[in-house]
Write a structure and sequence with these properties.
Layout (H helix, E strand, L loop, with lengths): L1 H16 L18 E3 L2 E3 L12 H19 L4 H12 L4 E9 L3 E8 L6 E6 L5 E5 L1 H8 L3 E8 L5 E8 L6 E6 L19 E2 L5 E6 L17 E6 L8 E5 L12 E6 L5 E7 L6 E7 H5 L7 E4 L5 E7 L2 E6 L7 E6 L9 E4 L5 E7 L3 E8 L2 E8 L7 E3 L26 E7 L2 E8 L5 E3 L14 E9 L5 E9 L10 E4 L16 H6 L3 E5 L9 H5 L7 H16 L8 E6 L2 H11 L6 E5 L18 H4 L5 H9 L2 H4 L8 E7 L8 H13 L6 E6 L10 H18 L11
Helix pairs in contact: 1-2, 3-14, 8-9
Length: 733
């Protein structure tokens, strides 16, 4: 039987290869419909068989189709020019630095990738001007193993004597937790598997470690169990993880948690408390617990007290002096900041220290001198600080660049502030200013740390952003940023990419991308929209593009496309749309709703079959965002947002390129393969459908520098090809 399957796979591959001279690299494979009925509605699934990526038949089709797509892209005359430009801009800075963590004793930890390096390394240094030491080098690991590796996360012990970090291979995000002695460079204990979301946290004395671990899947367990029943464990540094104590999660006394919720715990800096965070998949609202730390470290069971539930609508927390600062949108759609005492926790009596205002509170972080507050003012972030004691109002800290930054209040992660240290570390950037790392001192002085080297293209004077608001189908005003070179002609001829995301309340903020310069060099314009489903205006804007209201997201996006055309920034023949992951819903449904409006569409690692998404390992955690097919309302919402099921035979669809990493743990690769097959069978436009797969990548997390450049060059070249731009048209055979 196996020999017959293998022979069939070889024949199939040969048949696909025989179509190499065809108009589209994607040849629709034979449909094998698997219909399902939900609440009286039959849903057809002609390419369900492509979900079995281990099948020789499926893999043969995937490899043949991807190889032809890669070949078509490689043959485009201007692609190499784009790749050279991307390399030039990316290597123009001596190093890229991010994830900066400062420790007592003026010790600094961060990830760094040099101009000629392919992956980020974990480094430390004494003082901002001290000599760098490499602690973890994924490139060296790749040389030993033959597989690309990436650092997923890291946490630093008090004083910086130890680092715990997660390492994964080939974009899988299947992290293994390691602990390193920074003085000797030696590892402590054995690596800990199943720590995809390890969230390591060291005790105040540095002798104990908290970490989160996924359950071990027994043979025959469904894939949807992967992220369920995770637990937080406590062990002595260098101890045996298999003997670690389970202290937070399902079955722990005093903790009310469902199997699908994710428990994470962290020590407070002063050693007094352990804070428990419960995340319901992708839901933004969290549940919080606390227990005194000393008894737990002495071997006693934790005595957990529930502080807030998801109904309290808390989205962020920061600890300081036996209290928690909380960001909550309960009764305040633009969010407010509360303070809750851990000694007498009663959320109903929490003090409002920063009331709701016109600006949206988006983050907080506690330093020794003050609480720092991040607020969104239109498309610009404002930084405020409020003294811990007294009732003085928060005061704005003037920043050198009007743009974006992000405060991280969760002590289980690397943070911009530290309650043991005064001031703040701030990564600040804008549409036309590259990210720099600034130090904010207690007196409000803001200075460049010098940790991030500056490059010759980091502040282009000829690039500007035009901010507009576009009336959508129901009159709602959708903010959009248009990044372009000065003096661009509004003649309808500009190759334009419209980008959006519109899920999870994530807002597209002003960020600088050196790779974007290559697109602008080619005469391109980039428009970035914030449809409903983002939280640019707060909670109400987010929930207006969520589950049953999800159609507002692509209707807003379509309105932005129409506005760009009406104002002659571009035309349908020169307009492309791009979205990744959950942004695949946005661009996919915009395409199926208005195929006439776009020249080309790129869903990158896109969520495209939302009816089947729930049966995947990452499907259950996403139910809070998208809904469940087990209820009629949920099913109707999922069907409406499912691109795969909205494709109609005989329709003239634009050119489409679907990109995906085969090892993607967040959005299964079959979202893209099934959609590519369905489009190839349905479209009558004669425009190409490309399926660009990377068999050494996943969701994009941990992609090497070269992988990122190659994909970006392919996306830009594909758009310019389909927009008819001279210099990117393939030669006639």
């Amino acid at each position: 039987m196996k020999k017959k399957l293998f022979a069939a796979a070889l024949l199939l591959a040969a048949q696909f290869a025989a179509h190499a001279q065809g108009a589209s690299p994607t040849v629709a494979p034979p449909p094998k419909d698997v219909p399902e009925t939900f609440f009286g509605t039959t849903v057809h699934d002609p390419y369900r068989w492509l979900e079995d990526v281990k099948s020789p038949e499926t893999m043969a089709w995937m490899k043949a189709t991807s190889e032809r797509s890669h070949a078509a892209l490689a043959a485009l005359p201007g692609r190499q020019t784009l790749l050279d430009a991307l390399e030039k801009y990316d290597s123009s800075v001596s190093a890229r630095v991010f994830g900066v963590v400062r420790e007592t004793g003026d010790r600094w930890f961060y990830e760094r990738r040099g101009a000629t390096e392919n992956q980020f390394k974990l480094l430390m240094r004494q003082g901002t001007a001290g000599r760098e030491r490499v602690l973890v080098d994924p490139e060296a690991i790749e040389k030993r193993t033959g597989k690309p590796h990436a650092i997923n996360y890291f946490g630093v012990s008090p004083g910086g004597t130890h680092v715990a970090y997660g390492l994964s291979a080939q974009g899988s995000e299947a992290a293994v937790l390691h602990v390193l002695d920074t003085r000797s460079g030696r590892s402590l204990g054995r690596p800990i598997t199943r720590t995809d979301y390890g969230s390591p946290s060291f005790s105040a004395d540095g002798r104990h470690l908290l970490f989160s671990r996924l359950q071990a899947l027994a043979p025959g367990m469904p894939a949807t169990e992967k992220y369920q029943r995770s637990q937080t464990f406590l062990m002595r540094l260098g101890g045996d993880a298999e003997k670690a104590r389970r202290i937070f999660g399902l079955g722990v006394p005093g903790v009310d948690i469902t199997p699908a919720e994710i428990p994470i715990a962290a020590f407070t800096h002063d050693g007094r408390w352990i804070i428990g965070y419960v995340y319901n998949g992708t839901q933004r609202e969290i549940t919080l617990y606390a227990t005194p730390a000393p008894p737990v470290l002495a071997g006693k069971p934790p005595r957990w007290t529930k502080l807030v539930s998801a109904a309290d609508e808390v989205t962020g927390a920061a600890y300081f002096d036996d209290g928690l600062y909380l960001v909550s949108h309960r009764g305040a759609p633009r969010s407010q900041v509360l303070r809750l005492s851990l000694k007498a926790p009663d959320i109903a009596k929490a003090e409002v220290i920063v009331p709701q205002g016109e600006q949206v509170v988006t983050g907080i972080a506690a330093a020794a001198d003050a609480l720092y507050i991040e607020r969104r003012d239109g498309n610009v972030k404002r930084l405020l600080k409020r003294a811990h004691a007294g009732g003085a109002a928060a005061q704005e800290v003037r920043l050198p660049v009007e743009g974006s930054f992000q405060l991280n209040a969760d002590e289980s992660l690397a943070s911009a502030a530290d309650p043991r240290l005064s001031g703040l570390v701030l990564e600040l950037q804008s549409w036309n200013r590259a990210r720099q790392i600034y130090l904010v001192t207690a007196d409000g002085t803001v200075s460049n740390s010098g940790l991030q080297p500056q490059g010759p293209y980091d502040a282009p004077a000829d690039i500007v952003a035009t901010e507009v608001k576009v009336a959508s189908h129901d009159g709602a005003l959708v903010p959009m940023s248009i990044i372009h070179r000065k003096g661009v002609a509004l003649d309808g001829r500009n190759p334009t990419i419209l980008y959006g995301y519109a899920s999870y309340g994530i807002t597209e903020e002003p960020v600088f991308s050196p790779g974007r310069l290559a697109w602008l060099d080619a005469g391109g314009v980039l428009a970035v929209a914030n449809p409903r489903g983002s939280s640019v205006y707060g909670q109400d804007w987010y929930k207006a593009g969520w589950q049953a209201t999800k159609p507002n997201t692509w209707k807003d996006f379509i309105a932005c496309a129409q506005w760009l055309i009406a104002q002659k920034w571009t035309s349908p023949e020169r307009l492309g749309i791009l979205g990744g992951s959950a942004g695949g819903i946005l661009v996919g449904r915009a395409m199926t709703a208005r195929p006439d409006l776009f020249a080309a569409v790129v869903p990158a690692v896109g969520a495209l079959d939302m009816v089947r998404a729930e049966v995947t390992p990452n499907g259950v955690p996403n139910i809070p965002e998208f809904g469940t097919r087990t209820t009629e309302a949920g099913f109707r919402a999922l069907l409406a947002m499912s691109t795969y099921h909205q494709i109609v035979d005989g329709t003239k669809y634009p050119a489409v390129m679907l990109t995906h990493g085969v090892n993607d743990p967040r959005v299964e690769v079959w979202h893209s393969t099934k959609t590519a097959a369905r489009l190839a069978a349905a479209s009558t436009s004669g425009k190409p459908i490309l399926l660009r797969l990377d068999f050494d990548a996943g969701h994009g997390v941990g992609n090497t520098r070269r992988q990122q450049q190659q994909e970006r060059a392919d996306i830009y070249a594909f758009f310019l090809w389909q927009m008819g731009v001279e210099g990117f048209q393939p030669k006639a055979p």
